[in-house]
Amino acid sequence: VQLVESGGGLVQPGGSLRLSCVASGFTFSRYAMSWYRQVSGKERELVAVSFTSAGSTYYTNSAKDRFTISRDNAKNTVYLEMNSLKSEDTAAYYCYTTISGNHYWGQGTQVTVST
C-alpha cells in the first residue's frame, strides 16, 4: 500500500488549495479515505473522510463549510479542496486509510497559510 500526497504550499489567508493523494497497492474503491493534519508539537487530527458508499462524507467542525473531500475511483485519487484558508489551517496534511486493521499513512504535504 502506498499513499502519495501532493498539492501543498504557501497560500495567503482567504486563498485556496487542492490537495491530492494517489493510492496504490489495494482496491481503492472499496475503502474509506481520510485526510488528517498535524501541527508541529500537537496530535494529528482528523479533517475529513470519504466513505465508499454513495459518495458520503464526514467533516470535522474545523473543515465544515470550507473544505471538500472527493474521490476519483478511476484514478485511485482522493482530493481535499480547501477554501477560505486561515492561518490556523497551517499544518502538514496526511492521507490515511485502514485495511484489515492495518493503518497506512502518506508522507504528508505541508500547507502554510501566511502573508
Mean pLDDT: 96
Name the helicity range: under 10%
How many runs of DSSP E, i.e. beta strands? 11
Order of helices and strands: EEEEEEEEEEE
Quickly count the helices. 0
Shape, per Cα inertia axes: globular
Separation, N- and C-terminal Cα atoms: 37 Å
Portion in strands: over 45%
The main β sheet shows up as: 7 strands, mixed
Describe the 3D structure:
This protein is mainly beta and 115 residues long. Strands 2, 4, 5, 6, 9, 10 and 11 form a 7-stranded mixed sheet that branches. A 4-stranded antiparallel sheet has the order 1-3-8-7, with no helix packed on it. The termini are far apart.
How is the topology of this model organized?
Blueprint: E1 2-6, E2 9-11, E3 17-24, E4 33-38, E5 45-50, E6 57-59, E7 67-72, E8 77-82, E9 91-99, E10 102-105, E11 109-113
Parallel strand pairs: 2-11
Antiparallel strand pairs: 1-3, 3-8, 4-5, 4-9, 5-6, 7-8, 9-10, 9-11
